[in-house]
């Protein structure tokens, strides 16, 4: 009897250790889809367990930039369609019918939140210890929806299909810290052969303490550098603390925040995207590869369960919004580095190829002036 008790106790200990280390993989891949047009946006969904939550601890891309311009992973209360695949390019300019007859619908029919984003052959993203995205169960995320933007269709014309997507590392075990994503983005436009700084800022009004641990930049071909800041204090006492700064022409995964930052109620979060339009025509923010985008993503954790109620901050962008339009923001306190391409690894090395329409390390004109700012593009020039 005593021997049986010892065996039972030992088995319980082993089971306890095993339960702590349980991890699974969840594949969310396009089911052999065919994109018919350049800049098609296609979506597919996976229903989660409504009774038990799942915790995501890592994101492993199964895609390449030749096929997928970018990938977004959304959490939805309801997906935008009950079909296996649907056309979720709500902003798409094409009205041509699809030979595959994909139904058109939004990404999410209700309860949309961004969980992850990928572009330009970015590598795997692993969350810190004890941090995870909680999905399914009692949460509002009952479905995961994968959205893929196809900027090239050569492979489809050749008769191939696509299975781009993500492989998620998950666990059934609860973590003490819950992860969320905050997205800053702008509208706007940039005039021909000119430079522009797209700007966006929002006050955190919710009673919350956020801990940013990773950031991601996104722009298309004209972006030079994207940067994000926590803004705290008023007037001459205001301090802009950098959350992240990176060239959007490098792989677009989530990169670690270099310092320990907290964001609290009444702080502002601000982001800016410096671009130069090498084209002879005006370029607007939009969904296609010939348009532009200015996005700055912040991945953060909180103790407990409460995430931001409103995870998106948007502005109209140039020429309708600049920081100077907000009386709270002291533009004189913006660090000069905010508009400079950083040194490697967040900026390209001198001999590193980049995917843009201009050479990012070109010496700019001297005394370049933009409204309130005077700056050079790169940290490692003119020294």
SSE blueprint:
Elements: H1 2-20, E1 24-29, E2 40-47, E3 53-62, E4 70-76, E5 78-79, E6 86-87, E7 103-104, E8 108-110, E9 113-119, E10 125-126, E11 131-136, E12 143-150, H2 154-157, E13 165-171, E14 177-186, E15 189-190, E16 194-203, E17 209-218, E18 223-232, E19 239-246, E20 255-256, E21 263-264, E22 268-277, E23 283-284, E24 295-303, E25 312-315, E26 369-370, E27 373-374
Parallel strand pairs: 6-7, 11-14, 14-25
Antiparallel strand pairs: 1-13, 2-6, 2-12, 3-10, 3-11, 3-13, 4-9, 4-12, 5-8, 14-24, 15-23, 16-22, 17-20, 17-21, 17-24, 18-19, 18-22, 26-27
Outline of this structure?
This protein has about 375 residues and is mainly β. It contains 2 helices and 27 strands.
Mean pLDDT: 85
Task: Sketch the major β-sheet.
Answer: 11 strands, mixed
Task: Report helical residue fraction.
Answer: under 10%
Low-confidence stretches are 1-19, 91-95, 358-383
Question: Describe it for me?
Answer:
Helix content is about 5%, strand content about 40%. The N terminus and C terminus are likely disordered. Strands 1, 3, 10, 11, 13, 14, 17, 20, 21, 24 and 25 form an 11-stranded mixed sheet that branches. The chain has a 6-stranded mixed sheet with strand order 7-6-2-12-4-9, with no helix packed on it. Strands 16-22-18-19 form a 4-stranded antiparallel sheet, with no helix packed on it.
Features of this protein?
6% helix, disordered C terminus, 2 helices, six-stranded mixed β-sheet, mainly beta, 383 residues, eleven-stranded mixed β-sheet, disordered N terminus
């Amino acid at each position: 009897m005593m021997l049986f008790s010892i065996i039972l106790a030992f088995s319980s200990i082993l089971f306890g250790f095993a339960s702590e280390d349980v991890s699974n993989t969840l594949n969310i891949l396009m089911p052999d889809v065919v994109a018919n047009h350049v800049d098609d946006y296609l979506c597919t969904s996976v229903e989660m367990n409504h009774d038990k939550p799942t915790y995501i601890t890592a994101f492993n891309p199964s895609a390449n930039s030749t096929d997928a311009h970018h990938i977004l992973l959304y959490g939805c209360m309801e997906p935008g369609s009950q079909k296996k695949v649907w056309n979720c390019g709500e902003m798409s300019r094409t009205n041509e019918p699809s030979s595959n007859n994909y139904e058109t619908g939004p990404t999410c029919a209700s309860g949309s939140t961004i969980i992850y984003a990928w572009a330009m052959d970015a590598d795997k993203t692993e969350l810190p210890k004890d941090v995870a995205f909680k999905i399914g169960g009692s949460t509002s995320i009952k479905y995961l929806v994968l959205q893929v933007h196809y900027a090239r269709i050569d492979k489809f014309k050749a008769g191939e299909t696509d299975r781009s997507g993500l492989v998620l590392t998950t666990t059934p075990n609860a973590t003490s810290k819950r992860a969320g994503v905050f997205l800053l983005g702008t509208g706007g436009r940039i005039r021909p052969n000119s430079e522009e700084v797209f700007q966006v800022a929002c006050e955190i009004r919710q009673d919350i303490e956020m801990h940013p641990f990773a950031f991601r930049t996104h722009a298309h071909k004209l972006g030079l550098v994207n940067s994000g800041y926590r803004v705290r204090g008023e007037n001459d006492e205001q301090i802009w603390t950098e959350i992240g700064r990176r060239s959007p022409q490098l792989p677009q995964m989530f990169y670690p925040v270099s310092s320990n930052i907290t964001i609290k109620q009444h702080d502002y979060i601000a982001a800016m995207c410096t671009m130069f339009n090498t084209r002879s025509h005006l370029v607007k923010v939009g969904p296609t590869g010939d348009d532009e985008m200015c996005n700055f993503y912040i991945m953060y954790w909180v103790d407990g369960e409460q995430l931001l109620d409103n995870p998106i901050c948007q502005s109209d962008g140039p020429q309708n919004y600049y920081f100077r339009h907000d009386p709270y923001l002291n533009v004189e306190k913006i660090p000069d580095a905010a508009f400079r391409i950083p040194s490697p690894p967040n900026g390209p090395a001198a001999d590193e190829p980049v995917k843009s329409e201009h050479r990012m390390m070109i010496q700019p004109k001297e005394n370049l002036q933009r409204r309130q700012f005077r700056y050079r593009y790169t940290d490692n020039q003119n020294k």
